[in-house]
Amino acid sequence: QVQLVDSGGGLVQPGGSLRLSCAASGFTFSIYNMRWYRQPPGKQRDLVATITPGGITIYADSVKGRFTISRDNTKKTVYLQMSSLKPEDTAVYYCNTAAVVNGLQRDYWGQGTQVTVSS
User: Fold this and answer.
1) Helices (H) and strands (E) in the chain — how many of each?
2) pLDDT reading at 51 higher than 90
3) Is-contact 22 39, C-beta < 8 A?
């Protein structure tokens, strides 16, 4: 019963900030990479950020310097702190991981949370 629950989205003005959360359950959170993807309206879903179990982070060029991915292994939660938001950041944001359950590895996705950047 792997579950990822995304939250924290909303409407924000350009230049504003927002923090997304992804609460994980049903797997050993601390040993997996966690990722955030986003899907703008009418476009493909793209990788935004990755954080490894050891805390190494990787970002898409479009968000470097503005977004920070972090994790709290005790709370089994991954975060995406977004600042200097732009209208181009408007998208549904999805938490993602690969997890092994009953010997099978597959991708799991949060339900998504809408981020709208507009004045």
Assistant:
1) 0, 11
2) yes
3) no
